[in-house]
Amino acid sequence: MNSSQKRMIGLLSTAHLILDSYSSFLFQLLPMLTLQLQLTPWQVSWLSPVLMVSSSLLQPVYGMLSDRYLKRSMVVFGPLVAAICLSLLGQSTSLPMLLALVTLGGMGVGAFHPQGAALVSQAVVGDPERARHQGLVMSIFSSAGTVGYALGPLLIAAGIALFGLSKSWVVMFPGVLICLILWRTCPALEVRRASVDQPPLRAALRAVWAPLTLLYFAVVLRSAVSVSIHTFLPFELQGAGMGDGARSLVLAGFIFFGGVGGFFGGTLADRFGARRVSLLAMLLATPLLILFFLTPGPLGYLFLMAGGAMLNLPIPISVVMAQRLVGFGASTVSALMMGFAWGAGALMAPLTGQLSQAIGFTQALVIVSLLPLLSALLLWRYPEGGAAPLRPLALRPVA
Fold this sequence. Notes:
With 399 residues, this protein is an all-alpha fold. The chain folds into 2 domains: 189 residues, Growth Hormone, Chain: A (Up-down Bundle); 203 residues, Growth Hormone, Chain: A. The protein is built from 20 helices and no strands. Helix 2 packs parallel to helix 9.
């Protein structure tokens, strides 16, 4: 890669970090907003799903718009919309206003992701030498967002501590600045059109529906585990007598090492093969997470961090695998793996909540930790060539 391409990858990864920091503001602000607006638990319960739908489940729509019409607008203005709307949450004077800000902010977050991933991938595809580093490049982009998500609560907490909830808007300026930089420097997305002998995007997706479905549900199951642990682990730690500060550190460590896993995932995939690395990560995630629940003390937390790294290691790999299936619809398939699959997995978290009410948080999370094994089974069935027809279930070498 030349210096210009490296700068663009670094800029887009930095924008991803800043953008995803805004996406985690809501969870830090919920207790304060509940008191400020006198919200009921039923009203509060709608906020997270609204953010999830607008930022994650709608990403395939944003991806199709990126592929067809908007060549750079979403990646440039997505961070601006997210920064303004999600920084203004503290100024909400009613539930409808709060819902509107959450919806618009989520749309800004979601709009950036598919086009950003496609632009990052664009820097390395088309050249055999550069294409060898596609996994590494996507890992840098993906892990930057994870780090930003972990830093978001710290950023908004610092802003409120310094200026108060009524001036939460002061933290919008990093998003405004990155928008200005992207507007001046970000290239248009050079969508790889189907040639005369290639089918339309819809037909191309149908042609690879079998491997794409296996890959999609493997990501959904992995996401369900990650979101369930992120949501309900605080309750398990609280029941064990852990204070607020210590719980925050444990969760921050889980998210941070997830980002570390995502960073190294692409590098390992470039060297050893995407399917092999993803499959091994899912096989390791389950025992590591279960060991956390069975092992007291610091050693148990090391198992948790390692389990988080294994859970997140396949994230950028899955995006690359999907892009290689349908090369000229990079934004659409990136959205399918990054947003839609993540959102669908997150919607399974309430089932973990129902299970925890019946048998307890620890037991429920142990059961949920078995799901990566199902994800591994799907990846084992994933054809070696990606788009090759599925063969009958049988033992065969892992590629």
